[in-house]
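> tool_call: predict_assembly(chains=two)
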Amino acid sequence: MTSMIAELIWLLTLTRSHVIARRYFVVNGFDGALTMLGLLVGFYVSEDVRLPVVINACLGVAIALGMSGISSAYISEVAEKRRELRELEKAMVADLGQSAHGRAARLLPVVIACVNGMAPFAISLIILMPLFAAPLLEPLSLLPLQSAFALALIIIFLLGVYLGRISHTFWLWAGLRTLLIAATTTTLIFALSPG
Amino acid sequence: MVQVKRIVLDVLKPHDPNGFDFTTAIAEKTPGCSVKLTVTAMDARTETVILVVEGKNLHLHVISEAIGSLGGSIHSIDEVDVENGPDDTEPA
């Protein structure tokens, strides 16, 4: 298991795919968090929506986001990695199927697809935790929908902070920027909601 | 006992892994050796390097497999140093 992880890290570094995986994690993770935020605000403005309905709808969207992330990234990454391998084989005038580059072309699309799919799914599940734990929140006088909304804002802020760390910009500014996007989304939902 | 002490190879390799990772990976496969890499030509996707491997008892197929697994291919064997030292077990 350890050697397999070491091999994957080596292949990710070799093909510089760790940058792609990181980008996919942030982009699709942000996608998942903002989608959940939108759903939660949508249910909030709808009023009188039963909690099981909210949970089922949000869970359905989380699964769909995960599946969409896995399949879309896999299809595109397989094509990209095959093209890269073919071009390298042409330059090397050799079959690189058994080399590290060949292994990378076969394995990395799966890894990148998992990152792309798991990021929105896992982040969505974290945001939905207050909904799952609604009976536990009751004695604390915390409302599940509002708690999940707050958690979504925290995660969106943290994703911004992470982006700030990558780009070496001030973390607070980067976090506030993503939070501004969340605030704009929320305002738009409230403004455009017919109810 | 015949032992290969030094091999100089002309190798074509992709840019990645870079020279550091390439030589490190080869050294890992052949314990007790020293590996020196010199880039002699650069192309858009590939580079030609001179690889000097020194050790007590080198095996070309091990080095060749290591190079192949890193996406490289041996163009030519430019130099080989071989020694025929005394046998390990002396007759009684």
